[in-house]
């Protein structure tokens, strides 16, 4: 399954790289306009950058839940590795790998010609967001069945990336607690200052998610 989760983002990247520009040309010719999808290429890149961390962290969350179901994890917690070491091995190491994979994919298959700096920023927010949603799953679900349901619910939160496109004005503030919202804001930023502020906000909100649900999961096991 892990190999499939690694291959899948590359396959999606190939589809993104070749199918979407083809659709842009087809739709533009159909309606007689110069471009329709092009202004949203960077937002589409944001979806792509989140794919690898999302898939890999989902595998990590189900591995944690499986070990929780099998009563394996409590025995690990009393070893020198402890709870923090367990989370590092089961989640942080896969997330680091996911970040590297995400950065490689976005730099190869991006549609908007993004810079290395922007690629790092998007991959960072996407990976931290994936860690946060994984901790939501393991903190709230009691087993793999519940984990699947919670995973689907947390997936809805990723729609926050579309808010900067379809929602205008101050009402956007209602979505500021979603890391995906800031991922969307970064993708739409026109100036470096705005981009960096949105990036810092996205990273900060992601760490809030991580802190809250890490502690909730730890208390639940305690």
UniProtKB/TrEMBL annotation:
Q: Where, by residue number, does the polypeptide cross the bilayer? A: 6-27, 47-65, 85-109, 116-141, 161-183, 195-214
Q: Does the keyword Magnesium apply?
A: no
User: Keyword annotations for this protein?
Assistant: Membrane, Transmembrane, Transmembrane helix
| Keyword Phosphoprotein annotated | no
Q: What is this protein called?
A: Fluoroquinolones export permease protein
């Amino acid at each position: 399954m892990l190999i499939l989760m690694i291959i899948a983002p590359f396959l999606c990247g190939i589809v993104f790289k070749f199918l979407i520009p083809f659709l842009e040309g087809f739709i533009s010719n159909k309606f007689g306009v110069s471009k329709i999808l092009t202004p949203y290429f960077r937002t589409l890149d944001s979806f792509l950058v989140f794919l690898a961390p999302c898939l890999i962290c989902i595998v990590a969350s189900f591995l944690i839940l499986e070990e929780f179901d099998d009563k394996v994890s409590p025995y690990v917690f009393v070893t020198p590795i402890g709870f923090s070491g367990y989370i590092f091995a089961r989640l942080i190491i896969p997330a680091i790998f996911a970040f590297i994979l995400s950065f490689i994919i976005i730099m190869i298959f991006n549609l908007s010609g993004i810079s290395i700096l922007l690629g790092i920023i998007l991959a960072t927010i996407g990976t931290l967001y994936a860690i946060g949603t994984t901790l939501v799953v393991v903190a709230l679900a009691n087993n793999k069945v519940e984990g699947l349901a919670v995973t689907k619910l947390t997936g809805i939160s990723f729609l926050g990336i579309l808010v900067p496109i379809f929602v205008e004005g101050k009402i956007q503030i209602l979505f500021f607690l979603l890391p995906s919202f800031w991922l969307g804001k970064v993708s739409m930023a026109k100036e470096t200052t705005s981009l960096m502020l949105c990036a810092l906000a996205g990273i900060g909100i992601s760490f809030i998610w991580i802190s809250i649900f890490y502690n909730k999961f730890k208390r639940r096991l305690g």
